[in-house]
Amino acid sequence: MLTALKQQKLLNALKTYRKDFLDGSIKELDESGTRIMINRFLSDVLGYKQLEEIKTEYMIKGTYADYVIQVNKTRHFLVEVKALSFQLSEKHLRQTVNYGANEGIEYALLTNGKNFEFYKIIFE
Length: 124
Prior knowledge:
- The chain has 124 residues and is of the alpha+beta class.
- Helices cover 38% and strands 27% of the residues.
- A hairpin with a 2-residue loop joins β1 (54-60) and β2.
- It is globular, with a radius of gyration of 15 Å.
């Protein structure tokens, strides 16, 4: 449950993220730079523990998802990051969903650091 204190902490972390990265001073950033932003988002805003819960370059059938969030050895969702200047596209979405489907991970986050698209993958 999101208590008032946790909600305020989340809002403050989002404001800091926005000020640090989305105030307009950073116009172009490649994917590796955008990953640094997302590391901060996952740890500072969402509260995941670096190294323990945030797994980077997670191998899935010979390719690599940028991140998998794993808590208590359970994979909760994967994160696919694109460069800050990229518009997220159907191609990016297909790649992200394929990673999740191939690994049996039910949720996926596709982001360029400023736009965040969260998906539930339906297995048929």
